[in-house]
Amino acid sequence: MPLLLDLFLTFFKIGAFTFGGGYAMLPLFQAETLAKGWAGEAEIINFIAVSESTPGPFAINMSTYIGMEKSGLLGALCATLGVVLPSFIVILIVARIFEKFKSNRIVRGCMAGLKPAVIGLIASAVISVGLTVFCPKGASLDIFKNEAFYISLFIFALMTFLIFRFKKLHPILIICLSAVIGIAAGYLFAIPPLSV
Amino acid sequence: MSKTDQNSKLRRIFTLFTTFFRIGAFTFGGGYAMIPLIQRDVVEKHKWITDDDILEIVAIAESTPGPIAINSATFIGYRVAGFFGAFFATFGVVLPSFVIISLISLLLNEFQSITAVRYAFFGIRAGVLALLLKALVGMYRKCPKKIVSYCVIAFAFILSVFTEINLLFVIIGCALIGLIYSLALEKRAKNGNE
Predict the structure, then answer these.
(1) Staple A152 to which of A160, A164, B63, B126, CB 3.0 to 4.6 Å?
(2) Threshold 0.95, pTM exceeds
(3) Is A165 on the interface with B (CB under 8 A)?
(4) CA A72 to CA A68: how far, in whole Å?
(5) Range of the domain at B135
């Protein structure tokens, strides 16, 4: 299949099967891009940070980025169009039958299953991100001799504390602080740059 | 349609575009972060829809596929100015991200080999894990606390962590579980009333 068509169809599928906002798209996005070899695990997490620090919806940022990486501006266009189109079509239909849709038993029933499903899937995505952060590919398996493991653990613990203690803290602040600690610790412990 | 009507519709479509462009350019994180801005611009400033409509739009956006930002832009655009309203509102909300990310993706490749940047992303990944954890806890708190919810969470989680099964099937399966459960509840309530 030509790459542009593949980008469009893959992101169309992701757009059509994501319910809910924010990170609801992450599990599908992770599964599809990893399966296609469009991005590595660490690259996806890096990109979550870029997406949090730039305006706009996560879904659009993600699809534009992968499309751009794989096939330039046309690729970005196809991927973004793909992710937007399902919503656009469905909402145009729903807007006409709004009242019926709202009280439809089948829609309500499906939602009773979809909402918790997203939580279970995101929980699994968080675990896979955790594995990538703490035990990245190619890192020493002996975590007790691995400074990178302890630095990651320290940053994760500190940021978790800050996020839950100060609820108004902007995500960008968390990202900047993590970056500063990462740079300082990286030079301080002379971590081989290629391993991180 | 008279000429003045057409003019005012064109103007409305243009305002939809600029309004949603601004919303897309100034919200970080998308989705729910966008709701207060929509409220200020679309409800208070232009009075295109009411506060009650906003609640309904959020409910609809949650129960239809796709990002909340896109769903709300399309829905409000359609309400205000029909198909072209929907089109330009959606186009407006997508455009800022599209432009910014296209530029950033060019820069990222340039910088990724620099040691300091590698260290920065090494630190950032641990921070992102904390942000994801927060998002997960937030979603869990908003979910109805019912046995069926816990079962579906466990079902989706276990299938996705321990098996290679396609996530689309997991999502469809969970929707079916919710549907069967709700219909069964309804039936029982009906039988109880008789």
Answers:
(1) B126
(2) no
(3) no
(4) 4
(5) 115-142
- pLDDT tens digits for range A63-97: 999 999 999 999 999 999 999 999 999 999 988 88
- Does B132 share its domain with B193? no
Contact between A21 and B157 using a beta-carbon 8 Å cutoff: no
Distance CA A112, CA A115 (A): 6
**What is this model's ipTM?**
0.88
Task: Say if the Cβ atoms of A15 and B134 lie within 8 Å.
Answer: no
Cβ(B167)–Cβ(A31) below 8 Å: yes
Which of 74-113 (A) contact B at CB < 8 A?
A: 76, 80, 83-84, 86-88, 90-92, 94-95, 98, 101-102, 105-113
Q: Are residues B76 and B138 in the same domain?
A: no
Dist. CA B38–CA B19, nearest whole Å = 9
- At A103, which helix (H) or strand (E)? none
Considering Cα of A3, then A62, then B167, then B182, what sign does the dihedral take? Answer: negative
For helices A26-36 and A41-52, the axis angle rounded to 10 degrees is 140
